[in-house]
Amino acid sequence: MLAQKLLNRISKQPKFIITCLFFVILIIIGLLWLKHHNDTKPYGGTLRLGGLGGKPSPINPVLTKQTISNALIQLIFNGLIRLNKEMLPEPDLAESWETSADGLTYTFHLRKGVRFHDGVELTSEDVRFTYELVSDPATDSPYTSYYNIVKSREALNKYTFKITLKEPNLSNLIMTLPIAPKHLLELTRGKRLKETEFNYRPIGTGPFRFREWTKDNQVILEANPDYYEGRPYLDRIIAIGYETFSQYWSGFMRGETDVAFFIPMENFEIAGRDPTFRTYSFPGPFTYGMEYNLKHPFLNNKKVRQALGYGINIQDINNKVEGGYGIPSTGPFAPDSWNCAPEIKPLVYNPALALNLLKQAGWEPNRKGILEKDGKEFRLTMMVNQELRNSQMIASLIYQDLYRLGIRIDLKTIDYNKSGEEKYKSLIKDAGAYLTFFTLITNPIDFDGDWCSKYKNRVVKLWQYHKPEIDRLINLDIFQNTTDIKQRKKIYHRIHGLIYEDQPVTFMYFMPHLAVINSKFRNTDSLFSTSMPFWTIKDWYISTKELKN
């Protein structure tokens, strides 16, 4: 009887049906969300991390630079700030900071209650101590030169730290230094720092804490239950070092490790055919480029440089040299970084447009099919950096593309390391172009023009390109309030646009980094980016289903 009444009501009230269905759908969605939430982010599991360079070296934030131990630093320790996959600074031990108007003073406000793995609270004294330690020549730290620019370090109170620089500098290295415990290292300064037991039993504040250094030189870390952002999902990390790539790759394929970095194309493609693995191709910190001598009479015309950019089949070079895995470049800014203008697109091969631009610049083919202007044939000497991977193949392909345009190239190799800077300058002075690679730019200090020559602490030598408007923007960037990333983006996107428009270099593609990981791990994308932030491993997890298997 009751059922009959309910059926009658439903048949007479369609709104009632819709309401019931709506609530049923909401309940189903809620149950699915809970299932997904509970199944995909459980706690547990082990990541086996392999590395080249031999057995792990001592793990000390002011000494460690090589081997698998360098990656472990980001998991055991924290800096004042950290860099994410876009190379943007994020708060870490410092929850906020201010910069003085002259760009010389940084004041950091530390999180309260952050504890080292032995339970001692981190304070500004630990920060001051670490900065003094890395700056002390007696420490013999590989990072000392980066911190010579620091004039003073002050612990203003328990949770406030201030550094003053000798000159403006926006290098993130100044703020990402991993912080060591003063109470454990203050009696082991100088040469004694390399002999302390701490190097083999490190104690930091990071998401993972040291557990064991085994007899066969494996380093075992375990999740830090008291980490300030909450304990990581993985229970432990086992780090293994290999002497050769063959051992490294064999170990990965045997299941000794779960992730492999910087692998050759053939290994990458083998792994890509196996559903057990997930592959990543991402831009490394170097981009190929053909740099032009802007004082050369043929190349001081922007239309000519633009024509060369359109006349070189960059994608074809990428396909033949890198298997197509190179990441197209529009300038010295990584495409996944904050200072790369997303609206700027790579040049597309267009020989017809290239010839039209060359014609506008006064170049016409003569009877031999060579472009000619004012009785001079378009012939250039192109220096080729011998250090460049596959340099001869790339140079040969460029030679062929420009030959088809009617431009003749004389190729000459040069070893920058052996020749030295002065000889290098004299060799390319009369050359038209230089095939080389460029380190990506993340800060003003990375530029190397007239403006930067007065700054002794420059990190990277780039190219001799100079443009007053870019200099003005660099000065604006370094002397303004650098905490406003939106303003910095505007400046760098404008710089990017100016470089792209001027084409002082035909940027080709970023050398690809190829990596492969066991597909059971989730939330891994952030690590496989140009900045490779290893600290993001704290967010990795294994799904419930795979943990049970």
Beta-strand residue fraction: 15-25%
Spatial extent as radius of gyration:
28 Å
Total discrete domains: 3
Low-confidence stretches: 448-462
- What percent of residues adopt helix (DSSP H or I)? 25-40%
- The level 1 CATH classification of the largest domain is Alpha Beta
Q: Termini distance?
A: 51 Å
Largest β sheet strand count, sense and barrel closure: 7 strands, mixed
Structural class: alpha+beta
Instruction: Count helical runs.
Output: 15
E-strand count:
22
Mean pLDDT: 87
Please name the CATH architecture of the largest domain. Roll
Shape: globular
Q: CATH superfamily membership of the largest domain, which one? A: Dipeptide-binding Protein, Domain 3
Per the CATH scheme, the topology name of the largest domain is Dipeptide-binding Protein, domain 3
SSE layout and pairings?
Layout: H1 2-12, H2 14-40, E1 46-52, H3 69-76, E2 81-83, E3 89-91, E4 94-99, E5 105-110, H4 124-135, E6 150-157, E7 160-165, H5 182-185, E8 208-213, E9 218-223, E10 236-242, H6 245-253, E11 259-260, H7 265-272, E12 277-292, H8 302-311, H9 314-322, E13 327-328, H10 351-360, E14 364-365, E15 371-373, E16 376-377, E17 379-385, H11 391-405, E18 408-414, H12 416-428, E19 433-439, H13 468-479, H14 485-502, E20 505-518, E21 521-522, E22 541-542, H15 544-548
Helix pairs in contact: 8-10, 13-14
